[in-house]
Amino acid sequence: MEFSLIPQQQAQVDAARAYARDLAADYQNRERTGLIEKEVFLEMGRRGFIGAEIAPELGGRGESRLTSGLLLEQIATGDFNIGYLQVVGSLVGQILAGNARPEVAQEWVPQITGGTGVVGIGLSEPTGGSDAGNPQMRAERDGSGDGADWLITGAKSMSLMEYCTGAVVFARTGDEGRGRGMTAFVVDLTGPGLTREPYSDMGTKPVRRGAIHFDRVRVPARNVLGEVGQGFTSVMQGFDFSRALIGLQCVGAAQQTVDETWAYVSQRQAFDRPISTFQGVSFPLAESETLLAAARMLCYQTLWLKDAGLPHTAEAAMCKWWAPKTAYDVINSCLLLHGQYGYRTEKPIEQRLRDVLGLQIGDGTAQIMKLIIARQRLGRALAP
C-alpha cells in the first residue's frame, strides 16, 4: 500500500479542502434553515465531488474509491451534512452502474454525479430497522410476463428524503425466507401514489431524513436492478464501499474539531498560562489525534482493498462501527475542553456532536457490524 498521494490526488484533495472552507461558513446556518441549497448540489457536481469513482460515460471522473474517500473526508471538515451527497451518491451510483440496464443507468447516474438530482437508498423501513432482509414493502406484477409493470406498496426511511427525485428501493417479490425473494428497483419519486413524512431528528437537520410511503406506485419492468428475487445478495454488496466512506465522513468532522481545539487551548489562559501547558488538556487531544489517525488508516486500507478487488467486508464493518463512535467520543472530549464555550451554540462543536451521532445508527448499527465481522472470521455456523 502506497501512503503518499499521487499529484493528481493531492490536487483534488487541496481543491476539496478549499471548497470545504467555503462550506464551513454556512454549516450552522444550514441547521437553522434545515436546508442544503440547490446551488451547493450543483457546485458539488460541477467540481466532480459526487461519485468521483463512477465512469466518465456516466458523468463521473473514473477515480479510485480511495480518491472519493479523500474528497469526502475534506468536505466533511467544512460541513458534515454535505458529505451525505457524496456517500449516498457513491452508494446509489455504483448500484445503478453495476446492476441497471445501460439505458436506465444513463438516465439516472448523470443526475447524481452532476448534482441535478438526488437518488436515495430505500432499504431500512420505519418498523424494521436493522432487519433489512425481511422487508414489509411488496412489489407485484401488474399483468403477466416479464415485461409487465410492477406495483410497489410499503414505506422506506431515507436520508435526503425531501430532496429525492428517485430512489433505489428493495421490496419483497417472493415468499422465500429472510434475505431471499427480494428485488431492487429504481423508482421515479415524482409520480402519483407517494406520501413523504419528514422526521424531526436531533441532528443532521439539513439532510431532511424521513419516510416515503408507496401506495401501488407503478414501476416499469426495465427499472428492475439485477435479477428478480436476488436484490439482497447482489445489490447489497455495494454497502461495503459506503461504510468506509461513512468512516471518513466522521473522521473529517472530528479532525476539524480537534484542530480547532488545539488552537483554542493554545490561546485560552487560566492559572496565568495557556491551558495547553497542562497535561490534563493536551494529553486528551494527543489521544484523540492517535485514535483518528488509526480510524483514518483503517478506512483508507478498506478503500484500497476495494480498489484492488480484494475482500474487504470485515474491514468495512470495522470502519462503520468504530469510526463514528471514535469521532463522537473525540468531539465530545473537545467540547469538554472548551468548557462552557463548547456547550454553547455559537461554536459548531455541539452541532457536530449531534450530527455525527446519527451514523452510529444509520447504514448499520455497531451490533450488526460486529455480527458481520464475527461471521467473516468464523462462518455463520459458529458465529451469533
UniProtKB/TrEMBL annotation:
| Cofactor(s) demanded | FAD
Which PANTHER family does the entry mention? ACYL-COA DEHYDROGENASE (PTHR43884:SF37)
Q: Which organism is it from?
A: Nakamurella multipartita (strain ATCC 700099 / DSM 44233 / CIP 104796 / JCM 9543 / NBRC 105858 / Y-104) (Microsphaera multipartita)
Q: What CDD domains does the annotation carry?
A: ACAD (cd00567)
Tell me the SUPFAM superfamilies matching this sequence: Acyl-CoA dehydrogenase C-terminal domain-like, Acyl-CoA dehydrogenase NM domain-like
Any one GO MF annotation of this record: flavin adenine dinucleotide binding
User: Where is the organism placed in the taxonomic lineage, from the top?
Assistant: Bacteria, Bacillati, Actinomycetota, Actinomycetes, Nakamurellales
Record region (Disordered): 124-146
| Domain Acyl-CoA dehydrogenase/oxidase N-terminal: residue ranges | 8-115
User: The Acyl-CoA dehydrogenase/oxidase C-terminal domain covers which part of the protein?
Assistant: 229-376
Q: What is this protein called?
A: Acyl-CoA dehydrogenase domain protein
Q: Which residues form the Acyl-CoA oxidase/dehydrogenase middle domain?
A: 121-217
Q: Which controlled-vocabulary keywords does the entry list? A: FAD, Flavoprotein, Oxidoreductase
Similarity comment: family membership = Belongs to the acyl-CoA dehydrogenase family.
Q: What are the transmembrane regions?
A: none
Instruction: Decide whether keyword Nucleotide-binding is in the record.
Output: no
